Write the structure tokens for this entry.
Amino acid sequence: MPQESLPLEPYQLDAHNQQGNASHRRRYEHLLQEIGEATAETIVEKLIDFQIAIPSWALGTGGTRFGRFPGGGEPRNLEEKISDVGLLHALNRSSGAISLHIPWDIPKDGKAIQQLAASFDLKFDAVNSNTFQNQTNQELSYKFGSLQHTDAAVRRQAIEHNLDVIRQGEALGSKSLTVWLSDGSCFPGQLSFRKAFERTLEGLREIYAALPSDWKLFVEYKAFEPNFYSTTVGDWGQSYLYASKLGPQAYTLVDLGHHLPNANIEQIVALLLMEGKLGGFHFNDSKYGDDDLTAGSIKPYQLFLIFNELVDGMDANGMNHASDLGWMIDASHNVKDPLEDLLQSVEAIKLAYAQALLVDRPALEAAREANDAAQAQELLQDVFRTDLRPLLAEARLRAGAALVPIALFREAKIRQKLIESRGLKAVATGL
Ligand code: RM4
Ligand code: MN
Ligand code: MN
């Protein structure tokens, strides 16, 4: 592994872990007494396997329509983005995949890029198409939508773009395509809902037909923005309709920020899993809309409840937690160092996962059957309030990562090193 090309030396990681080891052991032993060694071992094993993909557009500051305030040292090209994800993975051993947005990141030489990623032990997760922005040199405009457009030539352009993204993904070893459309309308009367749906379905059918047989197609929904009256893939019902009509390789993708306020996302997840149609996840958190804030920063209990359903539903289907769903972060904003932010998101996701693994399912089932709402709440909240962070730290230690990734990031002055090598004015492509 070319760790020497990362702004982190192995000796720095070792020193960090040695320094924190005694207090970690104390906390871990204490937790073992509470939850038992066998349970702890099972959870630690599962945590080591669980990887969360990092999107290539989250490595720079972004996230608002107004201003961007880059903090310096942002990756200037795809190679540097891969190196940043490699760095995250070296720090936490939980970020072993990267998800590309085409055309923000077009690999010029697929093989070389794949090799670079492999040198950091990274795989390519879903590739994402982009028909929600006009690109320079693009012939026709997506102002009034892409796959739903009234003009067949615009629809053709959007379809061809998706076919091209599949080809790019194949060269990288990706196994899925995520389609998020901003298609919809801003004013009542602007659009025929039925025609928009049918045209979109027709386009998706052509894209679906071009999928390699071991690929999945993820249809991502979003309630509003940039269209504010209707969205053509607006909720899980519509996404489920498309995915069912397309066939067995098509699935719904849930982005946590894409619901109307107070939607019961855990229930959506449970039902999609029951139907075998949940394909992947975009993690972020929000207070109002698609805020794209750090996972777990606003509603950690909701994140736990979602994982509670994920674990329950995946187990009921005999699915592998680590590999049978696509796990990805989709967050990016202005005020934190993007790498620190991603480390926090990964930590929050893994914590919610660990908590869900600890739920006493037979007891919960018994409480439900007995209509004992108070006991059901006790069972869930008891787990939620147990501090499982020592399990995450133990999993990191065993996987060769840092005890406290964000602390090491600061101790090793990684951002300063990146600014020295890339400059203060470096700005990454993305939103
Ligand atoms: C959208 C959606 C997509 C993401 C873009 C950048 O709101 O979440 O998944 O690719 O933003
Ligand atoms: Mn998303
Ligand atoms: Mn979004």
Observations:
- The mean pLDDT is 96.
- Strands lie at 54-55, 97-101, 123-128, 176-180, 184-185, 216-220, 230-231, 250-255, 278-283, 326-329.
- The two ends are 31 Å apart (CA to CA).
- The CA atoms of residues 92 and 401 lie 5 Å apart.
